[in-house]
Amino acid sequence: MDIELLRTFITVTRVRHFGKAAEQLCITPAAVSARIRQLEQMLGVSLLERARGNIHMTAAGERRLPHARRLLDAWTLAQADLSLPQSQSHPIRLGHSPCLNLLLGDWLVDHNRNPVLLPATLISDTHAKLQLAVEQGRLDAALLTTPLPDSELSLLPLGNLKLVFALAGATQSVDRWVHLDWGFPTPPPEGWVNGQTLACQEGLLAQQIWRKLGGGIWLPDALASLALADQTASRLIDPEAYGAGLESRIYLAYRTEKEAALQPLIELIGKKLADES
After folding, report:
1. Segment 97-103 mean pLDDT
2. How many domains does the chain have?
3. Residue 193: which CATH number?
4. What CATH number does the domain containing 53 carry?
5. Nearest to 239 by CA among 191, 193, 203
6. How far apart are CA 105 and CA 119, in angstroms?
7. Does 74 lie in the same domain as 98?
8. What band does 34 get if pLDDT is binned at 50, 70 and 90?
9. What is the pLDDT of residues 198-244, one digit of tens each?
10. What phi and psi, each to the nearest 5 degrees, are found at residue 172?
11. Same domain, 133 and 248
């Protein structure tokens, strides 16, 4: 099957317009229409209901869209693997929870700034999609904060991250909350006055917004302490001060046959988490 047919189908379902899809794919609207017809003929079903200025998926299209996305993802990963030098004959394909991109730059190198495990592929996605990708062999492992139960994968707890609430800005009251999703509910900080809340899944983006706009954010203790030292944060609120500690447990979900290749990463992250606890 021509992979461009799948790419075109996925793009059309996202923008719901042949002309906009053509712009994104750098082809003509007529070519978009021809690709969709070709795919429908190959599958023997109608995928889209066409109306002027509006496109809707049929029931058959709804059923086939997730499969098309998985096939396109698998093809993209295969291209990435094949583009690597032959010396990297068995590269590690690693996924991670979006909040963890705050820490991966440190986790992938040792204390002497030497790479311990530099993945050939590094993907951020939801926990469910990451675990499915590992189960299907499209990824070798995934770093998660909240793994899903009933998985057939090996699931290794690497350690805990202690979270503290970092407050930036001159005000002593918390009027803005950059609510970074750590995969589990994080409570409002002490002194929360029901101000503006920005929910965000991406760790680096949440941190960047917080640094520019001020307010509060739950951060790993080590990162919050650095922010306090460089005066980005004005003060830190330790959750233990009002009743309970707040920790995010880090897991590695992986395929058993990759355990030996992942061992350097397992040991390094485990050590760093232990040092920070």
Report:
1. 91
2. 2
3. 3.40.190.290
4. 1.10.10.10
5. 191
6. 12
7. no
8. very high
9. 889 899 999 999 988 888 899 998 898 899 888 888 888 766 665 55
10. -90, -10
11. yes
Determine the 3-state secondary structure of 255 from DSSP. coil
| 239: containing domain | 91-277
* Boundary (domain end) residue, out of 82, 107, 122: 82
Torsion, Cα of 51, 57, 60, 62 (10° steps): 180
Residue environment code for 232-265, b if the CB has 16+ CB neighbours within 10 A, otherwise e: bbeebbebeeeeeebbbbbbbbbbeebeeebeeb
In one-letter notation, the amino acid at residue 232 is T
Q: What is the pTM of this model?
A: 0.64
Cβ pair 42, 8 in contact under 8 A: no
C-alpha dihedral sign at 276, 146, 266, 102: negative
Confidence of residue 80 (pLDDT cuts 50, 70, 90): low
